[in-house]
Amino acid sequence: MKKKISVIIGILCTIIMVNWIIGISMEAGSTEPGTVNDPLVTKSYVDQKTSEIMTTLLSKINPTESDEEAEQMDMKAIYAYIDQQIAGQSGSSFIVVEAAVGDTILCGGGTELILRAGKATVIEGENGDGLADLTQGLDLKGGAFVPMQHHLLISRDDGRGIKITEKAFVMIKGAYTLK
């Protein structure tokens, strides 16, 4: 008798569980397009939101430019900003930046550079100061060629950096702007 009651209770529990699972499944699948749970959007809405995000992102990269100038900036600056933000979140590690001929990399104070491939020249700061070459213990003046595989340090945020003269790969740790 106890065995029959146990079997009946087990079957009832199974039926209740199956009904509960079916009910949840039906509720989850009942979302219709155009409702609050699944809104429809137009292409113009997506384009507008994308434009707003790009304008905000570009203003963070270079806040002194107007909205029109910011929209004309190259996508490289956006990628550089994203790389910089990712590097900032992951700690104090170098990131590799690919730069084309004519690009400039302007650095903030405390930024470190290593030219891994390509060629570049030094961009001096507002007061004519250059970049500290920590590998050789030299001060590289404006216009000087940047030696490959040398650890460079930018001491101040005063417009110092490098200008790419041959496609380059540069390891960077710290704040920078790619233009």
Write a concise synopsis of the structure shown.
Helix content is 37%, strand content 26%. The N and C termini lie far apart (85 Å).
CATH H-level name of one domain... which superfamily? Jelly Rolls
Number of helices: 4
What kind of sheet is the major sheet? 8 strands, antiparallel
Overall shape = elongated
Order of helices and strands: HHHHEEEEEEEE
Radius of gyration: 29 Å
Uncertain segments: none
CATH architecture of one domain: Sandwich
By secondary-structure content and strand pairing, the structural class works out as alpha+beta
N-to-C span: 85 Å
What percentage of residues falls in helices of 4 or more residues? 25-40%
Could you state the oligomeric state of the chains shown?
A: single chain
Q: Give the overall pLDDT as a whole number.
A: 80
Q: What is the class of one domain in the CATH system?
A: Mainly Beta
Count of individual beta strands? 8
Indicate the proportion of strand residues: 25-35%
